[in-house]
Amino acid sequence: MKIGSKIALFYTLISVLTTVIIIAVFYIFSTQYINKLYASYLREKAYLTAQKHWEKDEVDEQSYQIIQRKYDELLPEAHEILLNMDSPSEVRDTLNKYLTQHQQALLIAGDSIPFSFKYKDQLGAALYYPDNEGNFIVLVMSRNAYGTEIKEHLLLLSIFLILASSVLIFFIGKIYSGLILVPLQHILKELKR
């Protein structure tokens, strides 16, 4: 292999490795942000679900209409499970299906603060909601289809950018190595003479 090709290849490897690291970090942080954002929507949906079901008799009509509107607009595809703590066997069976023992302890001790969990391919939010009508648990789950599409698109775009930049960097490296070697080639010709 000629020295110009070696220089171009080394330049390409260093540049592509740097590009891969940068794109990988961008992809990881982007997907984490998408998951966190969706989880925050689910937690908000859990709280709105509780308000919709158990606050109608405690707030005025206008405030309830606002709760209803927000509830309808936020993640309409989410699946909800409402549990009454007065029937402990049903609650225990349902919670065991979706949450670990540690998560269940967090839920009961959470003081009306929803937390996120994962169940199979779905993200979820759980909320313990004490009310004047009783103590309730709200589970809201949904598959983040839109976020999954964005992540797939980001992955394809990342792969394309890495491949395209690799080719471009290699050709730039060839040109660059040729320019670097021109003075050396003149010196070698003079030495041969």
Indicate the topology.
Elements: H1 3-54, H2 61-73, E1 79-84, H3 88-98, H4 101-109, E2 115-119, E3 122-131, E4 134-142, H5 145-192
Antiparallel strand pairs: 1-4, 2-3, 3-4
Helix pairs in contact: 1-2, 1-5
> Which stretches of 5+ consecutive residues score pLDDT under 50?
none
Largest sheet, in brief, is:
4 strands, antiparallel
In percent, how helical is the residue content? 55-70%
> Strand order of the main beta sheet, please?
1-4-3-2
Helix/strand class: alpha+beta
Give the termini separation: 25 Å
Give the number of helices.
5
Shape: rod-shaped
Percentage of residues in strands: 15-25%
Order of helices and strands: HHEHHEEEH
> If you compute it from the alpha carbons, what radius of gyration comes out, rounded to the nearest whole angstrom?
29 Å
Mean pLDDT rating? 89
Q: Could you tell me the number of beta strands?
A: 4
Key words describing this protein structure:
193 residues, 4-stranded antiparallel β-sheet, 69% helix, rod-shaped, alpha+beta
3D structure, described in words:
- The chain is built from 5 helices and 4 strands; from the N terminus they run ααβααβββα.
- Helix content is 69%, strand content 16%.
- A hairpin with a 2-residue loop joins strand 2 and strand 3 (122-131).
- The relative contact order is 0.17.
- The radius of gyration is 29 Å and the shape is rod-shaped.
- Helix 1 (3-54) packs antiparallel against helix 2 and helix 1 (3-54) runs antiparallel to helix 5.
- The longest helix is centred in the first third of the chain and has 52 residues, at 3-54.
- A 4-stranded antiparallel β-sheet has the order 1-4-3-2, sandwiched between helices.
- It has helices at 3-54, 61-73, 88-98, 101-109, 145-192; strands at residues 79-84, 115-119, 122-131, 134-142.
- It has 193 residues and is an alpha+beta fold.
